[in-house]
Amino acid sequence: MRATRWLALPALALVLSACSTSSQGNIGDATPAEDNAISAAAPSEILAQAKKNAMAQSSFHIKGVGQCPDSSFTVDMKLRSDEFGVGTVRLGSDSLELVTTPDGVYVRAPKAFWAAQKSGAVATTIGDHWVKFAKASNPCLTALGSFSTVIANYLGYTETPTKQVGGAVFTVPAVQLQFSASASVWVASRGVPLPVEVDDTSISTQISLGEWGAVVAVTAPLPTDVIEASTLPSK
Questions:
Q1: Strand duo 130-133 + 205-210: pairing
Q2: Domain boundaries in the chain?
Q3: What class is the 35-229 domain?
């Protein structure tokens, strides 16, 4: 059973060293990279090496669509291996700004979002403030904002894949690892063998991964701009 079905408990991961995008031939990279010979390896070995390589990186950029338990999402987050991250997540029709740190998830959202989640009065109290959630209290946003959880979920297949060589994703030459008729992971076949895309049509998921090892600046909101979620009334 594959860990990518994380939507009930949202929780991505990749042999070499932490490399910048320019040395990998990854998404958005115009610099050609040499064939890494990963295409000749057994499918399970390709996945294992991709996981190891991902976990050795300092950061990555995740973009795409998928499903949380109560809503579809569109994610655009830059995540660091020290569990800091920054970006946006759209849940349904609401676009949320996210900053993640090792001890919490900061969310800034439109008034309509808070009114639907809580009440109009609570939404007015929150205003333009960030709301800080304990990670355990919001598994979906926590997972989308966590370097290690994203890797674990999207590369956590236990089935034995088959492979297709000679393909490409976003002009990046890649090996396709297919786990079922609906689910595939694409691993770069040039530069460092890192995951490029994860697709699963059975759960409406298409996720692209890139900018591995890029510098990602994250600044936590000032305490004066933050309301603790635990202090807010339920309605």
A1: unpaired
A2: 35-229
A3: mainly beta
